[in-house]
Amino acid sequence: MINDAKKIIFFLLLAIIFFSCKKNVDDSSPVTRPLPADTLRVVTMYSPTSYFFFRDEYMGFDYEVVKNLAKYMNLPLKITVANNEQEMAALLDSGTVDIAACNVVQTKELKRNTTFVFPQPDSYQVLVQKGGSNALASIVELNGATVTVKQNSVFEERIKSLNHEIGGGITIEYAPDTITSEDLIELVAIDSISYTLAYYNTAMLFKPIYRSLDLSLHVGFRQRNGWLISNKSIDLQNVIKEWEQLNSTQRQVRALRRKYWNQNFQLANEQIKTPRGSVSPFDAYFKELAPIVGWDWQLVAAVANAESRFKTDLVSWAGAVGIMQLMPATARKMGLPDSTFFQPYPNIKAGVKYLKHLDRTFRDVEDANERVKFILASYNVGPAHIFDAIALAKKHGRNPQAWDNNVEYFLIKKNEPEYYNDPVVKYGPMRGIAPATFVKNILKTYDRYLGKQI
User: Fold this and answer.
1) Position 124 pLDDT exceeds 50
2) Catalytic-role residue among 85, 182, 186, 307
3) Residue 252 sits in which domain range?
C-alpha cells in the first residue's frame, strides 16, 4: 500500500511539472499582432526630413513614403507626432500605433521590443564646426574645446567616449531641454556655440543655408537606421518587405531622396547675366506687373532674387517653380497654367498676384511697411506659421501688428516645445530663423536696388 501511494504521488508530481512547464512555454511564446484593419496608425517626429508643414502643405521624406505604404495597403493614414524616440517606442510597445516612420538609428535598447524595417542609407556622426583655417582636422584637437550636446542622447555617449579616448580635456556642455540637436547645428552656423555632434545626413540639410559649416571630421562608425515596428507585428513586417520590392516604391524613394537631400547647392553661387544699369534681366516685367500689388518694382525684383536668383527653369527641393518659386498648387490658383510655369512673364505675374493675395490676408496689419514684412515671411513659409506667431505674440503681450522683436520673435521661438506645444499653435514647430532671415535679406537687397542708377 505504501509503495502504491508513493507511485501515485510520484505520477502526480510528474503531471504537475509537465503542465506547469507547458504553461510556461505557452506564456513565453510570442503573441503576434494582426495587420491594421481600418487605419494605418503612424507615429513620427517633426524634423526637416520626416514631417513638417511648409507653404500650406505637409511634407517630409518619411511622411510621403508612408503615405505610399498606406495607399498600397488600401488604408487611410493617421499621423501622431511624438516628442522623442522614447515616446515613439512606447507608443509602438503599447499597440497605439503600427509604425514609427522616422529615421531612427538602431540601438541595442530599441532592438529588444522593436524591429527595424524600411532601412535607410547608413549614417555616421560628425563634428559640426565652422570651416576655415581654424577648423579642427583630428579628434585629438578637441582637447581644450567645448562641445555642446543634448543630455541623455547618443551624442552625449559619443563625446564622452571621445573624451576618454584622447585622455580628457573636452568640456561637455549640455543644451537646454528646449533646444533640439538640429537647433545646435544652426547655433554653430551663427557662432552661438563652437561645436556639436550630429549625424552627417541630418547636418547636410543645413549646408545650402549655412555654407560655412564644416562636416568633414568623422567621429563615429556607420550605423543602421530606418523605421520601427513592434517585434509582434510579423504580418506587417512581411507586407512592408513586399511593398519595398515594388519598382514603383523604389522609384518614389529615389525621387524623394533627391528632393530632400540632394538640394540645389549651386544656387547661391550662380550668377545670371544682368544688363548694365539693371537689377535683373526682367526689369521691364517687374515694372509692368508690380502695380498689381502696389509695391515698388525693385521690391518685387528683390523677392525674385531671393527665391531664384532670376533663374527661369529652377525647381526647388519642395517643388516650387520658376523665377517666383510658387508651389504648383498655388501657381494654378493664381491662374498660371502648367505649360507656362517656367515662362518669365506669366510666372512673375502669378507671383505678384500671390503677393496681392497675401496683402489681403494680412490686411489687419495696419502699417503698410510692417505688413510687407508679414507678407515676405508668408511668401517664404506660408501664412499658417505666421498666424501661429501672431497668436503667440497676442498671448504673451507683444504687439501682434509689429514684426521686429514681436511676431518675428515668436516665429523663431516656434521651434521650441514650450511654444509649438501651446494650444494657440495649430501647425506645429518650424525653423523660424530661415523666414526671419529671408525678410531681412530681401529688405537689404531692396535698399541696394534703390541705390542703383536705373
Assistant:
1) yes
2) 307
3) 40-114+227-260
